[in-house]
What does this fold into?
Amino acid sequence: MTTRTADRGPQTTAHRSPTTDRLSEAQPLRSAVRGLRSDYDVESIRRDFPILARSVHGRKLVYLDNAATTQKPQAVIDRLVRYYSEENSNVHRGVHYLSEVATSEYEAARTTVKRFLNARDEKEIVFTRGTTESINLVSQAWGRANVGEGDEVLITAIEHHSNIVPWQLLCGEKHAQLRIAPVNDAGEVMLDQFANLLTPRTKIVAVGHASNALGTINPIRQMIALAHANGSLILIDGAQGVPHLPIDVQELDCDFYAFSGHKVYGPTGIGVLYGKQPILDAMPPWQGGGDMILSVTFEKTTYNALPYKFEAGTPNISGVLGLAAALDYVSTAGIEKIGAHEHDLLVYATGRLVEIPGLRIIGTAAEKASVISFTLEGVHPHDIGTILDQEGVAIRTGHHCAQPLMMRFNVPATSRASFGMYNTREEVDALIAGLKRVIEVFR
It folds into this structure.
């Protein structure tokens, strides 16, 4: 039995690493990868992203830092320009033409997000500055009203700081306890221990859909079911889920789902909090100001209806419009096809990286998004990133806002390559060539 990888010829399965085998056998994307090379026109997609044509340090840009932020297609750039050149006005507050146009487009964008997530109603879509603000909104507006002394909040050891610190702040204020579900050596949440940590005092569970640091895709359907069986609410940090996986919040049955526009080819500074309408209705406002009110006197304020109750002040109107354009772009390309393409890159890159002497991949879960973190013996990750940059290859180095996770694996930092819809196998080859250059310099 043989398998083939592009430009590398036949390779017997006897020489494949366990890591590569686990990834190639991952269930959700396995069948979609078959026939992908002829079904997904990555070169056509690349032409939609103008920044990919530029050079860095005299070399063609190879952008492999998509878990930090993605590049923007021309459709998103054009939408931002059109708003500022033809439609610029505040929303919900004017009777003149430009305000009516901006308001109509703004609310149409909310419908786009609702459709993308398959939410029941536009009222369940709250615009925020990003995943971080969405989580803080829940921890403060819902948490302050529902978490008390002795109660518990359950997260996992794989979380981004933005899904750790808000809950620490809440627990500190309310004298509650933050419980942590551990991960195994592959970077997978230990589901039995997760279940054992659920108690009658667990008010809310908050878990990432996928890890930004390791790529691990959490079994969120099982986690949601376990939380609900325990009588707990559950929030899903979808910052790394939305760019790679189809999301249906009704099918998932999560109580909250948060994501950021800039991770899914949209603008920075815009994000979404989905929440079930009855839960959002019962929550008090988080911030006060314009547009979140119905009436104000010095004696009393009456709050606006959903979702405006949580959208105080002038919103990021251009960001909302750009986000809608990005989601339309992704939907047209097909999120399943995107995910399959990225999985192909993940398997290919993993197979090439494990051949490098002294390289250790951190995070070898069977179910992974297109993220690979690694260390290279004798070389600091920052030095790896610096030399790769000189070769035109952009990766991320550091703790990736996941310091507790780095401590779990006894590493101060890792190098991280993360793939998006426009990356290619040839760019993986450029990463490998750059790493060989790193080894030449330091060894």
